[in-house]
């Protein structure tokens, strides 16, 4: 994982995108604080989830949607907790 200032990222944005395209994660800082994370875009998982849901139609319990929403909230809360206060 690379760490670079916003100024550095701005001046070499094409290189930052090239690094992300090749699997590198770049943390961008300003004033010593993390402000962004640039990394590879996710691939197949969205398609895989959609295919799973299509295959599972009618076999998931009635609370499945609620379970997914709760899991998503937990993940979002954990992600927010990893960032320093702005």
UniProtKB/TrEMBL annotation:
<dbReference type="InterPro" id="IPR036165">
    <property type="entry name" value="YefM-like_sf"/>
</dbReference>
<protein>
    <recommendedName>
        <fullName>Antitoxin</fullName>
    </recommendedName>
</protein>
<dbReference type="Pfam" id="PF02604">
    <property type="entry name" value="PhdYeFM_antitox"/>
</dbReference>
<comment type="similarity">
    <text>Belongs to the phD/YefM antitoxin family.</text>
</comment>
<comment type="function">
    <text>Antitoxin component of a type II toxin-antitoxin (TA) system.</text>
</comment>
<dbReference type="InterPro" id="IPR006442">
    <property type="entry name" value="Antitoxin_Phd/YefM"/>
</dbReference>
